[in-house]
Amino acid sequence: MASSASAGKKRVKLQLKTESGKQVYVAGTFNNWDGMEKKMAEKGKTGVYSVSLSLPKGRYEYKFVIDGAWCVDPECPEWVPNNFGSLNSVLVVE
Q: What is the value of pTM for the model shown?
């Protein structure tokens, strides 16, 4: 039976509250900024979207992609500037 820390990785859950019925993805340094790879699932019609990632320890930058628009995580306490003149959210896996 595999644990959530198997192969040196840790399961991390990202969550976003927005309008119901959106197409929501997460992209970041953990998936080469692929804005269509990690789709987030909506819980019912609540507008709460989430996804679980299995990541090795490290520091990652990410953004949510909501109906094609790239957005920072409003609940994330740490953001860093990117090369596009906007901000990326920061996720630290320990």
A: 0.90
